[in-house]
Fold this protein.
Amino acid sequence: MPSPLRPRTPRPLSVAALVLAAALTTSACGEPSSSAPSPSGTPAGTSAEPGDTASATALRRSGGVAGFDDRLTVAPDGRVTGTTRTAPVDCAVAAQVAQTLASAPAPSVAPAAGADRMTVTLLRAAGTVDLGEAQGGDPLSTTARTLLDDVQLPPDQRTVCR
């Protein structure tokens, strides 16, 4: 006999994605949008300078032999909230970390496939980036891996997210 269907509850990452989408939608309301080049050669309304206001990002690491289940949200001001498999997370990172997660280019190398691999996914305004195991040497993978590893430590031992 088939089992009865259970109502589906929203996953925390799905909820985080919806919150992120709503925040991005409302933050863009009423602001003019222009892609005309500025005198510096970058599109108006954007900047090549690090430290500008970043957009919120959602970072998730799951799987692997260790059974990771990390779900973090990094606000534009650097506030990090979320959970790991073992504890809640509430700390802050430098503005450069938030900026890198929000705007660094995606790695050009495709993630490796295989059994028992962990997956690291970044959801940001520009879309979803699959970082595989975030083992690449590119700035985005390095920043994501460093933050995810740091939040596994007790708060008094952290060096990135304090």
Remarks:
- The chain has one domain: 12-20+50-157.
